[in-house]
Amino acid sequence: MILGLGIDLVEISRVERILGGRPELAARFLARCFTEGERRYCEARGAGRAASYAARFAAKEAVMKALSAPAGLRFTDVEVTRPGGRPEVALRGAAERAASALGVRRVHLALTHDAGTAAASVVLEGEGR
């Protein structure tokens, strides 16, 4: 059963401006929004790092929408991983508690970036409560 659905778009140029701007603001944005693992992955993309960050930011927003933006949710409570090639979502903290309360058993994630835009869609699957 589908328990939640979320989608989000992010302009890659917005992320490029942040990354290329004042170093202390870029560092604060990265620390506030991305886990250490996500930062390692995106930084390894070299010239494509802004698109990777944008796609992950879109994924976090899509998860938040699918969970109906629970109180106390932080961006780092949602982590995009790639253990087997395709992107997956790991939930922690408020995101994990909200998903558990809904009865979520699986989070489906799709990411894409093209023509200056990154997009993510999320489907929450489970039996419900």
From TrEMBL:
The keyword Cytoplasm applies. Its cofactor is Mg(2+). InterPro entries: 4-PPantetheinyl_Trfase_dom, 4-PPantetheinyl_Trfase_dom_sf, ACPS, Ppantetheine-prot_Trfase_dom. Residues 4-99 form the 4'-phosphopantetheinyl transferase domain. Keywords: Cytoplasm, Fatty acid biosynthesis, Fatty acid metabolism, Lipid biosynthesis, Lipid metabolism, Magnesium, Metal-binding, Transferase. It catalyses: apo-[ACP] + CoA = holo-[ACP] + adenosine 3',5'-bisphosphate + H(+). It is found in: Cytoplasm. Mg(2+) binds at residues 8, 61. Its EC number is 2.7.8.7. Transfers the 4'-phosphopantetheine moiety from coenzyme A to a Ser of acyl-carrier-protein. Belongs to the P-Pant transferase superfamily. AcpS family. This is Holo-[acyl-carrier-protein] synthase. It comes from Anaeromyxobacter paludicola. The gene is acpS.
